[in-house]
Amino acid sequence: MTPTSAAVLLGNTQNFSAEVVNATNTQVTWSVNGIGGGNANVGMIATHGQYTAPADLPSPANVEIRATSQADLAKSASAQVTVTSDISLSVAPGAASVELGAIQAFRGSLVSNGHPDPAVRWKLAGAACPANCGAIDASGNYTAPQIMPTFGSVTINAQSVADSSKQASANVTITSNFALNVTAPGSVAAGSSTSITSTLQPVAGSNPSTALSWTLAGAGCTGAACGTLTGATIQSVGGALTATAAYTAPNTRPNPNSVTITVTPQADPSRIAQATLTILPGSSGVSVTLSPVSATRASSHRLTLSAQVSGTNNSTLNWSVNGV
User: Which has more confidence, 301 or 246?
Assistant: First the structure.
């Protein structure tokens, strides 16, 4: 057999020839590692002796090419082939910033003088993995997590299917640039209610978690003494999430007389939005009606006024003239 040894790059070919003497039938049967004609794992060999190395590196990388005489099956010759790899693998882009829930495509590029399997395996690595570092599909499309991980960086690893020793990586920085705001009146009367609205606007193409949590606090109150917040109604308009909660001020004003409403996004708890409300004195429901409301009198002439008190059982009045 000629040659008796060869190194063949993945997917490339090598011609072998076998000479049979002292026989009328000089035909031979070719096999690779004992498999007639070979297979995709160890390579294929044609009836005329052309060997095609496999597209994926076999283990071990050495294979045997054997030619067996058709005239006498006991007579054969062999050659040793080392299947080699010169693959160079790179990933593009090499680095990227990806917003929460957004998708970034990565592509693996193989360079070789052979014809290796072009497929690439993808996997993620990082302190937040596997629970909260996102996901990558078989095509290299990376989807960032919807919730900001404690460590906001992820490594994208690509591995050649043809030669698992050939790898490349890219770095991802997960970003959180959604807008969050709270709209509320500057003040509310004690015992009355008002609406508080929070809007979360994602960056175009992103998909952060839209869950929001609401808290209420004040320097001069705790718990119910600060008032109450009740269930937020949620609607999505044009990609933005709007949540509206009802705030009811306490009947007794705290001291200091302000409370702060804080909205915390699950997507990134560091990006809170707040509104501060001043609690004003509430209406007592008591009213006084005076009659007449205007009159003209000469100097030293008397005018009798009557006053009607409603909204209370205590009808006692204090009278004053020009505040005196």
Answer: 246
Residue 191's domain comprises 179-280
CA dist., res. 135 & res. 48, Å (int)? 48
107-111 and 88-92 as β-strands: parallel, antiparallel, unpaired?
antiparallel
* pLDDT (tens digit per residue) in 140-172: 999 999 999 999 999 999 999 999 999 999 999
What is d(CA 18, CA 76) in angstroms, rounded to the nearest whole number?
Answer: 9
What does the pLDDT read at residue 300? 76
Give yes or no for a contact between 269 and 147, defined as CB atoms under 8 angstroms apart: no
Residues 51 and 94 in one domain: no
Cβ-in-10-Å burial (0-12, 13-18, 19+) of 63 comes to: buried
One domain, residues 53 and 103: no
Within this chain, do residues 166 and 76 fall inside the same structural domain, yes or no?
no
Report the number of distinct structural domains present in the chain: 3
The residue length of the chain stands at 324
Inform me whether the pLDDT recorded for 284 exceeds 70: no
Q: What's the pLDDT at 56?
A: 98
The enclosing domain of 244 has a CATH number of 2.60.40.10
Average pLDDT over residues 193-209: 95
DSSP bridge partners of 200: 180, 241
> Is residue 170 classed exposed, middle or buried when 0-12, 13-18 and 19+ CB atoms within 10 A define those classes?
buried
- The verdict on residue 130 lying in a domain is yes
Other CB atoms closer than 10 Å to residue 69's CB: what's the count? Answer: 20
Instruction: Report the pLDDT averaged over residues 20-35.
Output: 96
- Of 84, 111, 134, the residue that ends a domain is 84
- In the block, residue with structure tokens 């040793």: 80
Q: Which two tokens stand for residue 174?
A: 């997960």
- Residue 27 forms part of a structural domain: yes
Q: Which helix (H) or strand (E) holds 201?
A: strand 193-201
